[in-house]
Amino acid sequence: MRELLSHRSGLPSPGCEGDPTSTLRRCVASIAAGADPSVTPGTEFHYSGVGFVVAGRIIERLTGTSFERAFQQRIARPLGMAHTRFDGVRRPHSRNPAPAASATSTVGDYARFLRMLAAGGTVDGRRVLSAAAVAEIEKDQVAGIDTHDDGAVQITGIPTYGLGVWRDVVAADDSIQVVSGSGALGFYPWIDRAHGTYGIVAVDDEIHGPEHAVPASQRTARMLWQAAA
Q1: Is 190 strand, coil or helix?
Q2: Is the pTM of this model over 0.70?
Q3: Distance (Å, rounded) from C-alpha 16 to C-alpha 23?
Q4: Residues 140 and 96 placed together within one structural domain of the fold
Q5: For the range 189-197, what are the long-range contacts, defined as Cβ-Cβ under 8 Å and sequence gap of 24 or more?
Q6: Are residues 1 and 93 both part of a single domain?
Q7: What strands, in cross-sheet order, belong to the sheet with 185-192?
Q8: Do residues 187 and 201 lie in contact, with contact meaning Cβ atoms separated by under 8 Å?
Q9: pLDDT number for residue 183
Q10: Range from 79-83, 89-93, 185-189, 205-209 carrying the lowest mean pLDDT
């Protein structure tokens, strides 16, 4: 799971990720029956959604329900995220959500999620994630791996990665100061641990792609978190 969520699985990208004509179960079965990992798992960083697809199916097996239902039961409802889904906004809902990319949400919903993480896993006095889990999300999961040849690292300019988050700013002892997420279509969220703030930039760039949208979002986010600090 750690390798899947930190882009170190070595699995090739599937053609079925988010395909509405398939299911998460069938998509992961095709990954399992497909090509072997291109490198020894755990040894290289390659930014891709494939690890999150497999992790999503593991969640389905462990919980005995769909990925969307598990998300609603364990995250969305406890946080009051009434406008966030991974399986599409139209009916019938997709049975093959892309856990790394298919979520739809609102700034208000996402802010509740960030507030929970910023508070170490709690919101309004209710614990959703353990403090240890939140710390593990932000921990450097690619230590000892040269990530500079990866295309996403070249776009973000950030060489270290946690579990689903970029580690934008770290202290001399490698403790986290700022973590973020990035995307050309959706949201650019961040948490500033050094100053106790968090925020979101809404991003919509269907023309230029991530090579333009991500650095532009980063500049806006840095300006905002510096102003908040």
Answers
A1: strand
A2: yes
A3: 9
A4: no
A5: 189/110, 189/114, 190/221, 190/225, 191/114, 191/117, 191/118, 192/225, 192/228, 192/229, 193/138, 194/169, 194/229, 195/225, 195/228, 195/229, 196/118, 197/118, 197/225, 197/228, 197/229
A6: yes
A7: 166-170, 176-180, 185-192, 197-204
A8: yes
A9: 76
A10: 205-209
- Per the structure block, which two tokens stand in for 129? 């994630």
Question: In this structure, which amino acid lies at residue 39?
Answer: V
Find the domain containing 201 and state its range: 126-229
Portion of the chain with pLDDT greater than 90, in percent: 91
Contact 229, 197 (CB under 8 A): yes
- Evaluated on CA atoms 57, 58, 64, 68, the torsion sign reads negative
Asked if residue 120 is part of any domain, the answer here is: no
Show Cβ contacts of residue 41 under 8 Å, excluding neighbours closer than 6 positions.
3, 8, 9, 10
Residues 141, 90 share a domain: no
